[in-house]
Queue: 3 jobs
Job 1
Amino acid sequence: MDNLFDVAVIGAGPGGYVAAIRCAQLGLNTVCIDDWKNEQGKPSLGGTCLNVGCIPSKALLESSENFERAGHKFVEHGIKVEGLSIDIPAMIARKDKIVKAFTGGIGMLFKKNKITAVHGRGMLQKRYQERGNDDDSWEIRVSAGDEKEQSVRARHIIIATGSTPRTLKLAPVDDVNVLDNAGALALQQTPAKLAIIGAGVIGLELGSVWRRLGAEVTLLEAQADFLSTADEQVAKEAYKALTRDTGLVIHTGVEIKSTEADNDGVKIDYIDRDNNPQSLQADKLIVAVGRIPNTVGLGADAVGLQLDERGYISVDEFCQTSLQNVYAIGDVVRGPMLAHKASEEGVAVAERIASGRQGESGSSIHVDLGMMPWVIYTAPEIAWVGKTEQTLKADGVAYKAGQFPFMANGRARALGETTGFVKILADAESDRILGVHMVGPYVSEMIAEAVVAMEFSASSEDLARIVHAHPSLSESLHEAALGVDKRAIHI
Ligand code: FAD
Ligand code: NAI
């Protein structure tokens, strides 16, 4: 193949596939190159998020939460379940079915939008122009194992190559005893004892899954503070609930010294926060210590694509790289590693390319990283947007806070999910909302209202004047807004 496209997207995760679809909607002839293969060795679109990330983890969180409810929560409703059991292979098969439907769905969306999908690893080549040709397109070499290399040419490139798990030399992943996120999503039986290095987002979500299914789960976290990026008060409440109710054992401030895997499982030696040596024996170990941007084999050096000191592709606020007509989005660039962030950057770049093509100077749409919602799908769920109380203090910003507990919310009582609260932080003078922090039931859904309010520069008074349905969890947000002015009704 030697076709000239308007846009070539490298990577078909939530950044790349969404960018490709938006480009196609805007009339750009688009190709999307992706190298992901599933366990059956077949190409599978959707990147980390659909194959081994957001979607499969949420499928398992739902299954395990149903099991937990049936075993422990139904009884207070007067529902008795006898002989309760869980069929792990069936649960994993359900997860796989969801993944297959979604990854296959992207292929259909590509067909519908007339996007050319090319399977293989893309490597940037020197510009045609620089090699003496008279057009200004870029070339990408695509290799897919033994198959013949292909060449793709395009006027614009969007790099969306995502991220891969950060590895720990002291705990090499062997896919038997020591697993990364992909292995942790595919276990065929519940390990009796599960250790996790890293009490971040993956550790907490996947730890919750296997804890609810019966594993004894111990998380070993290097940082002294639990969930240090979240609002301190939220982190404290979440720690209490996750250790007390979910039953996770979380050790912070540890230093891993060694791991040793054998037929009996894996032994982890570490120094605890009081400087005492400790040893933990587990059947399985999950390593979840963050992710690194994926630029391996991209040919960045050869074409002079600039990376920053941490290995991310350097971009400006519009995701423009150091090279003309080459953009980068999602996990491979600065900012939170979140699927919705990747997708929104993809849309913004597609619109920028399309507006430039129409002779305008280029759309000024950019994604505001300060308005990015975060959700951790544990029970209780954790969600936030904007500034935390500790960052406002550190920045010397004068603020007011309003807070409302789910314990005093009628819907939360009816659900039997009363842990947690909603907190709103507003500027002391202007009353503009600066941050919203939640821990509690279904806050993954409730956070959207806070994002809309903040995007429209709402004040806490605006939220306090908006009617919220009764009884609903969203009334807690309303009451927290009233609380900023010390006039909450039900507390
Ligand atoms: P990716 O999804 O990583 O996709 C990149 C694609 O590019 C891959 O298919 C890769 O194979 C391909 N590729 C790489 N290099 C090349 C190349 N040279 N040529 C061709 N193809 C290439 N985020 C959320 O917002 N919510 C969640 O609930 C959530 N849960 C998660 C759970 C887990 C267990 C994990 C691991 C992550 C989770 N994330 C979640 C994070 C989310 O998955 C990522 O932020 C998101 O996938 C990033 O999208 P992306 O398009 O930038 O990259
Ligand atoms: P993370 O950054 O959330 O957590 C990693 C944790 O490991 C940190 O707390 C870190 O201090 C700790 N750590 C690092 N080195 C360590 C060591 N040597 N010993 C002990 N602890 C160590 O990264 P995680 O959990 O791997 O997830 C990667 C990313 O994927 C997240 O940051 C997030 O962007 C995304 N994700 C998002 C989800 C969501 O939106 N619900 C769910 C899962 C992942």
Job 2
Amino acid sequence: MPQQLLQHREAGKGTPLVLVHGFPFDSRMWDDQLAGLADDFRVIAIELPGYGQSAPPRPFTVASAAEEIHALLKSIGALPCILGGLSMGGYVCFEFAARFIADMRAMVLSDTRCDADGPEAKENRNRMIQVARERGSTAIADIMEPKLLAPDTPKNRPSVRQKLRQIMESVSPQTIEHTLAALRDRSDSTGRLKTISVPTLIVMGQQDAITPLAVAQAMQQGIPGARLAIIAGAGHMPPMEQPDQFNRTVRDFLLSLR
Ligand code: MLT
């Protein structure tokens, strides 16, 4: 049993819709979902270990994060739940599904992948760990930022870029280091896709420079009955870049299951 519970922010009532953030963000990346989906769901935005109020920094794995989220949801009476995650949050969803599928009603995977890091990606994680240690969170934000948003987002929605910077720079270098190790060492969920027995929606930003569309299509084929939705005008961060389109897509999918 984890010694301390993760922190979270929530809004609304009804079926729990649990959202797990990507790297290196925190629950604030889901502000538009906390505001926009709370009429239909109890929206719960998780803070992974070291992030937001879940400080101080401590090591974790993608699998231990899934277990901690389950413990939190149990303690706040939020099971069974709909589980959603973006990128790293999606990796956590796969580990949660592998352990607690009976506590899930549906899954929403945004801009994520099911495979593990290959040797080159692992090397890159180690280089990023060095950058975090030597030059801190701002240097990490400088490396991440150009890959995160669709080309037009900074022009059309400058506040999204500002907010992303603010979030990334607020994450401590130790938490970045712990997370990079967790991402580097995560397991491959490809072989488990067929065991995902809950309705699943895969969402992808049309201009995501981090997650190839082919990966999303392979996940759709692997997860029985999964649907794939493409969000126009978004890169790797559809919930922030196109919140109305993202919320409508998720709401329509989930309400169609009722
Ligand atoms: C994320 O957005 O969570 C990251 O791109 C995940 C990763 O680096 O694998």
Job 3
Amino acid sequence: MEQTLSIIKPDAVKKGVIGKIIDRFESNNLRIAAIKKLQLTRCEAETFYAIHKERPFFKDLVDFMVSGPVVVMVLEGKNAVAKNRELMGATNPKEAAKGTIRADFADSIDANAVHGSDSLENAKNEIAFFFGAREIC
Ligand code: ADP
Ligand code: MG
């Protein structure tokens, strides 16, 4: 069993597809072990995406992530990290495989509907960033 962090980004929350995205996880054996809706502060978004701070898109990414509420979740299941990345599809929705979340719900590389941890190590850190042990079950 693995756990990974998923974020439904502001574009998908605004579109009203929280339920449809959660259905993709639950239909593919990823259990929602924790969930909450929140508005990221600029400082939180910058800290969460600190790994990208030298990239040219960093400011746009942070601006976008604070543009509205997000839903953060801990997904749990067999190979959860890789399974979530597979269900999400490629970063650029134009390149995302048919039937993936980004192909179906994302509009652009900036507004790409979901975040998912890219390794078990990052998943542990990202989960700890948003959730205390008391909030995960
Ligand atoms: P992923 O979300 O697929 O793990 P990355 O970790 O590489 O992708 O990038 C984090 C986020 O930064 C992406 O989801 C996307 O919103 C944004 N991003 C990545 N690359 C670009 C780019 N070339 N132009 C604009 N935004 C980008
Ligand atoms: Mg990433």
